[in-house]
Amino acid sequence: MNQITPQPGIMDIALYQGGQSHIQGVADVVKLSSNENPFGPSPRAIEAVRDSAAMLHRYPGTDHARLRAAIGDRHGLDPARIICGVGSDEVLQFIAQAYAGPGDEVIYTEHGFSMYPIIARMAGATPVMVPERDRHVDVGNILAAVTDQTRIVFVTNPGNPTSTMIPESELQRLAEGLPQTCLLVIDGAYAEFVAGFDGGAALVDRFDNVIMTRTFSKIYGLGGMRVGWGYAARPIIDVLNRVRQPFNLSMVALAAAEAAVQDEEFLTFCHAENARLRVWLSDQLARIGVPSDASYTNFILARFADRAEAEACDDYLKTQGLIVRRVAGYNLPDALRITVGDETACRRVIAAITAFKGGAA
Ligand SMILES: *Cc1c(COP(=O)(O)O)cnc(C)c1O
User: Fold this and answer.
1) CA 217–ligand 1 middle distance (angstroms)
2) Whose CA is nearest to atom 2 of ligand 1?
3) Nearest Cα to 242, choosing from 71, 99, 361, 68?
4) Distance from the alpha carbon of residue 129 to the mean position of ligand 1, in angstroms
5) Which pLDDT tens digit goes with each residue over 151-168?
6) Predicted structure pTM score
7) 85 shares a domain with 26
């Protein structure tokens, strides 16, 4: 008799779908499906990884003090209010595990990151999806969906895969409108791509129930290393540290992230190239009849006439060695998410979509 059953909710978890990285039979592939940095990691991060190799027999530190200090330095934040995780995904998981459980509700928005409902279910909580308005987070809709059971609200700012931004005044209205018993998590995975945006840090300083999460996977080009962090009031950080495994980050990951966050020159270069090329990409797309919202991120959400055209374009791009991301799973079936690559990649994308549109006309 087999009575082994998982906890309620576990079997409702849909497995995360990552961006594709290979095309059968095509060698010269450009991967523009996971919002990775086209310039790779910082050379200083590569050097730090090499240097750490001789110490692999040692356990890493458990308090991440040096990395937290380096992050604090770069962003002007108190290192005592920072927690580091295996990607920001792990920090999001700490939050759900510590603050939501069976019977609790976790709000995320219509086009929000697919990890939010997964993480809510991992904690046994119930994910609640709130509609957006024209690919923009609607604060009124979120506040209307809050119940006595709501424990966490996840928003991404700027959004993925929408690339749109929640205005500062709206984010503040959301923080003010939520009950004190509900956490607001501002996922700033793309915050570095917005000039002058603090990712929500000032709101964290003003509200005890607001948490900001950030990642080394996007502008820092360290997706393969898995490092992210969160910033919150000290009592929250204290709670999250209790569900964090002491050795969650490897010594190699810690060294890479610390070197990366100190490499201002590389960061400035990546920021400038992305800002230049995302405008070029969306202007060129508009010229050939493919609209997109102004992007605040390192990708463009290209909109097609309908689902059939988006899928046909995706199929054609694959024949050209270009992998972009279908986003039907994010309730955006007529769109494709295209990571802003380097200039060569951007030019290839435009040439291919131009040919596709010409061929389809
Ligand atoms: C890429 C991304 C992350 C980062 O995840 P990591 O676990 O840090 O790699 C978080 N949130 C959103 C919305 C993302 O797109």
Assistant:
1) 7
2) 189
3) 99
4) 19
5) 999 999 999 999 999 999
6) 0.96
7) no
